[in-house]
Design a protein that fits this description.
Structural class: alpha/beta
Bound molecules: ligand AN7
Order of helices and strands: HEHEHEHEHEHEHHEHEHHEHHEHH
Oligomer: single chain
């Protein structure tokens, strides 16, 4: 007798809330069900009484939240008879597309900015057998080309403009609601194309609606089928806080940015695809956007690794960096509960980690005396 039922991915887990039926062949790698870890040292380090949880999406099968969207997008592409998928990517989408296409037995074409994606992500796309097309341009150029070529070739776009992507990604909010038993006061996310912040908001709205909670404001995301469509009611949804890298912050500039740049290559995006929806999320949730410098992002990445034992990639640390900034300033008041999504694993980008590491590394002779000395010299 098994002790508990086997977890087989988020589509099976949330079948009743996703666009699948009994005949759908599900393409899954067991994604979702990621840990929500309560930080134990950083709040004290900040000197503030707050509960900070991190949703460690880096523990998905390909190491990022993209798997939640990709299981849905590839499942639907296969159901609709597609034999090839295509995406532009700053790295993680290409890794997920490559893996789920391999699983489904179809072809993945991935357009990536030449020399600007983290090594781990490139390794994944190549290892899973995607056709890797490097373009002499950035993500936004790639996205434009993908949209153009999809009109001329039999390929399904699996970027987050594919609505099934957001359907899969909304399940992260369901998991948080189930674990906390209520919405956090604030939910912090890094923002690139703004698909994920939109997906989370859809998830919170649907969950709250289904459980009969009362909510304020109308939901504009559910085509009128959820309770929010009427507006009027009060409830249990977080304020959504979207943080961008300062060199790549169109939501802060109020307009598209043509030459985005940041060490957080995953969110090096100047023309977000979910622009209008993200503004609605901010308005409806009573949240805000803000920006963090590369220096602050890297410091947050390092602090999380050193004080909590959790390794995320630079882009992911933007959620924590932004939260810490707003906790320090009091904009997020003491007593709040906060969830920060850590979108991707730190192992994705070993170069960024090693470059900023100050850990003592010594090279010594292979004898006992030398090892003893190295230990004594480095005791803290
Ligand atoms: C680690 O892979 O757009 O705001 O092409 O990889 O939903 O775009 C990646 C985005 C945050 C931003 N954190 O999410 C891609 C890509 C990580 C990411 C984001 C991305 P969105």
């Amino acid at each position: 007798m098994p002790f508990r039922s086997r977890y087989t991915g988020l589509i099976e887990a949330y079948r009743d809330r996703l666009p699948v039926n009994d005949d759908t062949r599900i393409i899954s790698l067991g994604e979702g069900n990621t840990p929500l870890i309560k930080l134990s040292n950083i709040p004290a380090h900040l000197g503030k009484k707050v509960d900070i949880y991190v949703k460690y999406e880096g523990l998905n099968p390909t190491g990022s939240f993209k798997d939640r969207g990709m299981t849905m997008a590839v499942t639907k592409a296969v159901e609709e008879g597609s034999e090839a998928i295509i995406c532009a990517s700053t790295g993680n989408t290409s890794a997920a597309a490559a893996a789920y296409a391999a699983r489904a037995g179809i072809t993945a074409f991935v357009l990536i900015p030449d020399g600007k994606i983290a090594l781990g992500k490139l390794a994944q796309a190549m290892m899973h057998g995607a056709v890797v097309i490097q373009i002499k341009g950035n993500f936004d150029d790639g996205m434009r080309l993908v949209k153009e070529v999809a009109d001329h070739a039999p390929v399904t776009i699996v970027n987050s403009i594919n609505p099934y992507r957001l359907q899969g990604q909304k399940t992260a909010a369901f998991e948080i609601m189930e674990e906390l038993g209520r919405a956090p006061d604030y939910h912090c996310l890094p923002v690139g194309n703004a698909g994920n912040i939109t997906a989370h908001w859809i998830g919170y709205c649907e969950y709250s609606s289904a459980s009969g909670d009362h909510v304020t404001g109308a939901c504009t995301f559910c085509d009128g089928h959820c309770r929010y469509a009427d507006g009027a009611i009060v409830g249990n949804r977080p304020r959504m806080l979207g943080y961008q890298a300062a060199g790549s912050a169109p939501f802060m500039r109020g307009e598209m940015v043509d030459n985005p740049d940041t060490v957080a290559t995953a969110i090096r995006i100047g023309h977000p695809q979910s622009w209008d929806m993200a503004w609605k999320v901010k308005e409806e949730s009573g949240g805000w956007f803000d920006e963090c410098t590369d220096e602050v992002i890297l410091a947050a990445q390092k602090l999380l690794a050193e004080k909590e034992g959790i390794f995320c990639e630079p882009a992911s640390a933007t959620s924590l960096a932004g939260a810490m900034m707003d906790i320090q300033s009091g904009k997020i008041p003491e007593g709040s509960s906060i969830v920060c999504t850590l979108t991707g694993h730190g192992l994705k980008d070993p170069d960024a980690a090693i470059k900023q590491s100050t850990s003592p590394m010594v090279t010594i002779d292979a004898d006992l005396e030398s090892v003893k000395r190295a230990i004594l010299d480095n005791m803290s």
